[in-house]
Amino acid sequence: MQSNNQQSRKHEIVTSQWSDRWQIHHRLQALDISCQCVTNKPLQVKVDDIRTAIQLWSVAKQVTSPRGELVQWLNQCWKIKQ
Length: 82
Description:
about 80 residues; about 10% strand
């Protein structure tokens, strides 16, 4: 049982193509996000906060999406009024 002072530590399993998981793993490590990638096992990422969740989503999207989709997404971001 955890005490109230301890934060729960959650590891997310990232489902991706086996060829993409190492690229995602290396990028997450570069961002200092705790993750583990073992041969013949899915990528596991420690998600402690919303910032980490967003970075994980962004890295996975960049690696797995076709270039045209990423260009369209970036163009839409430029059109958003602040």
